[in-house]
Every structure is written in C-alpha cells, then in structure tokens.
Amino acid sequence: VASPLPLDDILRAAERLDGIANRTPVLTSRTLDERTGGRLFLKAESFQRTGSFKFRGAYNTVSSLPPDEQRRGVCTVSSGNHAQALALAAWLVGVPAVILMPEDAPPAKLAATRGYGAEVVVYDRYSMPQAEAGRRLQEERGLTFVSSHDDPRISAGAGTAALELRDEVGDLDVLVAPIGGGGGMAGYSTVVKALCVGVRVVGAESAASQVNARSLAAGHRVDIDIPRTIADGQQLTTPGRFPFEVMKETVDEVVAVTDDQILDAMAFLFDRMKVVTEPSGAIATAAVLSGLVDVAGARVGVIISGGNVGVDRFVALLGGRS
Amino acid sequence: VASPLPLDDILRAAERLDGIANRTPVLTSRTLDERTGGRLFLKAESFQRTGSFKFRGAYNTVSSLPPDEQRRGVCTVSSGNHAQALALAAWLVGVPAVILMPEDAPPAKLAATRGYGAEVVVYDRYSMPQAEAGRRLQEERGLTFVSSHDDPRISAGAGTAALELRDEVGDLDVLVAPIGGGGGMAGYSTVVKALCVGVRVVGAESAASQVNARSLAAGHRVDIDIPRTIADGQQLTTPGRFPFEVMKETVDEVVAVTDDQILDAMAFLFDRMKVVTEPSGAIATAAVLSGLVDVAGARVGVIISGGNVGVDRFVALLGGRS
C-alpha cells in the first residue's frame, strides 16, 4: 500500500529546510515511560520557528513556488499557527504575504503576524464567508493561495519532522500524531510507513470532533459543524482533500481525546518535562498518557505539534483544576 | 586576579558528568535580541536532570567522594532543587541518600525526592533548628553532609554549564547569572573569567535580599533575615563561605531584581520561547530584559538555572496580571 505522497518529495523538502527550520529536540522522560510501559520519543515542534510544525510546510511551499508566483506573492486565511508560519516563511524567501484574518481575532495574533513582516487584512466574518474573502483577495491581487493543510507541499514539509525523529532514534513500532485537517499527519505517516517496517500509525483528534475517524470509517470525507474543543488547531469541519487520500492508506487508527485528557497532558508536559504546549499540540501525548493507545513494550514516536499558548490562556485553561 | 576555584577542577567535573548530565540547549530569540540590543545566549538548565543546574554539583560531589564515605551515604537538608538533585545523583552512583525536610514541606516535593530513591526524614522546624536536625543525622548515621552551595565540588560541577555554553557559542562579553548562596555563580564566573578575555560578570539577585551585593560591598559576608521574594532559590540569609571567596575575585556587579521583573521574564520566556522557568531560574533573564544590565552590542551569556515550578504555582504567580 503506497502513500499518494512520494517520500522523495519529503526528502527534497528536507533539503530546502536544512539550516532554515530548527532541528527540534527529541525529548524523553523516565516517568512517562514508567506510566505508559513504552519507550517514548517526543518530537517537540513547539520549539520550531513560529512555535509550531506549520513553519516546515509553509516554507517548503513558498520556496518551491515558480518565480512569477513568488513575485506576485502569497496569501492565506488563518488566525492560527499557519498565519505566523506563512508570514515568516514568505519573509525569509523574500515573497510578499497577505494574511486574511477575522477582524475580531485576538490583537496579539494580528500583531505577531505583522511582526513577521506580513500584511494583515481583516474581514468581517459575519458579513462575508471566509472562502469568499479569500477568493476576492486572490483575484484582486493575483496572489497564490497557500492552504494551511490541503496541499502536498505542506505535507511534504511537515513530514521532515518525522524524518528527523527517525534519523535520531531509529525504528519505531508506533507513531502517534495529532490530526486536524491532516496536513501534518499525511507527511509523518508517509515517512514512517516507508521507513519503519510494521509501524502502527495512530492519529489523535478531539473527542468533540471525530471527523477524521468518521471519514476514514465511511471511506469519504464527512462534514461536521465546528466542534467545541480547547484544541483550536483541530476545529475543522472536514479533513483536507489531499491528506485524506494519504491517510486512507497510511493511518491505522484514530483515537478520540477529551479536553480533560488534553489538559492533563499539558500539565504533565509542563511539570515533568518543562515543555509548553498548546492544546492541539499536546493531544498526541494525551492519547498515550491516558491509555487510549496501548504502547506497552513499544518504541513510540509522539509528535508535539505546537506550543503557541499565551500565559493568559494557559492560566485560564489550567487554573483551579487541582 | 585568580579564582580560588581551579579551572582544572571544573574540567575534571565535566569529565565526570559526561554522558550523565544533560548537555542542555542554548536558546536564542530574535525578539529578545531586539528588545535588549545584545546578542543573547540562554543556557537552559531547566532541561537539566531534576529540572535545575543543581544536579551537576550534586553528582560531581557524590561521585568524587572517597569509597568509605560513599558506602556510608550522604545527607542534606533541603526542600528545594538540591534535594532532588542529590537524591538522583546518589541513586546513580549507588550511594544511600537521606534528605532531611521540614515536615510541612509540600507533599509533592517529598514524593518527588522519594521518587528518586532517597530516604526522606522529616523534622519539625518549629521545635528543632535545621542545623541541629542535620547534625544529629550525620552523627547518628555517619553520613557525609553535602551542602547545596557551600562546597568547591558543588561549584566545580555547576561551572560545567558555563563550559558548555562557551564551547557552543564562543567568547562572551558579558555573563549574567543568578546568585543565591553563590554555588552556581562561583563556578560560572571562574570559567568565563578564565576563558573569555575582558568578560564582565553580573550577578542577579532578589531586590528583597541584596545580601550578595551588600556582602561584596562590605568585603565580608553580611547576615540578613529571610527575604520575602517569589525567588525561593534565593531565600538565603548569607552567601556561602567558599563561593563568597570566589565571587570577591570574579563578580563585577550584582543587580537587584524585583518580583515583578521576574514575573515579566517568566511570562516572556513562556510566551516567546516556550521555556518553563521557576522564579529564581528566570532572574538573570529578568535582569537583562528589564534593562538592569546594559548589553547593547554585546555577546551575552545568560543562565536559566531551573524550571521547577508546578502548574499550580505558575498559575498562582501569573494569573490575573494582564
């Protein structure tokens, strides 16, 4: 069974990212191993540039665009990690970037994205749907739209994190990674299925969503309402078209993680490993720590996908729990 | 001007710690450099084993004790980072360890120290002074007392963090490090004064204490009441005897950092760099970030000494500030 994403694309992405993306640390914890019975290797993309794995895909995409598209510039619609990732990637390549954000996005997010050199355009999400706002921007300015997750180049970039992990720790029996739109998972799963014989690939998604589990069970992409979860990187209403085709071939299982399990994992990572994670970033760790994935005796790679949670939000999420 | 601590002792400690202590990461931040005007290199000992720099000195001391002292075992009085550091160090060397803690110490600290394999003995700090409790333990059991800070072997171990920093980033113009009892600073300052020509060494201590600044100004160790500060690693009433002799020769300046400046630095390190720090661990970063140390145009090493702040305490300290 072959992934529709060629491993070669990921190897080429690794060359593009060499010396530009951080080679993020792989963290281990005796306590975590004792609690789960496995040998766990946490790839901490929270230490990636802009604080999440998204930088890898954004840079891979922008740097591989044809020169005329680079000249005109790129755009996206995002108030999340992809916005900052694309802004920095474009700035590094020397490409203009326009990020469309809802006008009620947190001021700190607007400022951070501008801080990376992007032009931020706000739209009123109540009077105009996001897709419409994005389309207008592309047409008026001739910009190339860069999806946060639904693009082979995004997944190829993300896959380089799994390459690094495999390089550093060797073969894995299990890989556990978050699934939102699937852009990251499509990359990671392609890598480990190609390089680690017999590996089991487990996706972790919000129990409030389960859109990936349901879509994979149905064999086609299911649509849901925006799920209510603290894992804001996973508030998608359907899997990405391209990643879904990859995940059909490469993902063995998807587990449903509750917000409480995510908070437990965020607290564990903070207390025991001194790692700052946002809710979506901690969800794969939560899946393992809460026993949703049986890892006894296994060598397990776990992706920590991001650490963009401000002090205020962290305090609000974790205050008064114990 | 020579440090009373031979550089050779630190080089030997580095050999003992090789492959045992973590070689902790050196972190940089474009934002931090822009705000301060310097080029900053943060040595993150929060990622050291047991979560603080203390492991280096504890392991160096325990592993270099004569065989008969190792056989009888070691003890200390601490409810802080030294307790866990000594417990793990002793366990790794195969030496019995007894840690004396006040019986009203947080249960989590007692459990963590036992978790590293040490025997924890509690005493009633209202009916018996700490020194008296420690003395009894040594006499009754023939244990070797290992100070948290007042011992050349402790400082030699700590100094290896500065050696790694210098190895990784080259010469420094300024080194900024926390001073509590001085055990860490004595090691760091010895290293950089020996290896970086013209380096300026700046200590950061709590504005509520200033016991090191006052002692250095007076030329002898001053005694104060226990200072009220969130930097619990710095709640000492006088500098250590040995470190003070070193610091007289090697420390150029000591700056006084307020609790608010520490909290700002903890929030910055969390938000921008995804680094978990305890108050004492963030104090040197706070000194630079708040402008107490002029670093314009300079290459600056900064020691982050520890990250042992639980989620609950972090939330309590940083909740409701903005």
Structure report:
The structure is a homodimer of 322-residue chains. The first copy, chain A, has 322 residues and is of the alpha/beta class. Helix content of chain A is 47%, strand content 15%. Chain A contains 14 helices and ten strands. In chain A, strands 1-2-10-7-8-9 form a six-stranded mixed sheet, sandwiched between helices. A four-stranded parallel sheet of chain A has the order 5-4-3-6, with helices on both faces. In chain A, helix 5 links the parallel strand 3 and strand 4 (97-102). In chain A, helix 1 packs across helix 8 and helix 3 (54-63) packs parallel to helix 5. Chain A starts with 6 loop residues before the first helix and ends with a helix. At the A-B interface, helix 12 and helix 14 of A face helix 12 and helix 14 of B.
Query: What is the end-to-end distance of chain A?
Result: 47 Å
Most strands sheet of chain A: 6 strands, mixed
Low-confidence stretches of chain A: none
Helix content of chain A: 40-55%
Q: Write down the Rg of chain A.
A: 18 Å
Largest interface, Cβ cutoff 8 Å: A-B, 21 and 21 residues
Strand content of chain A: 5-15%
**Estimated structural class of chain A:** alpha/beta
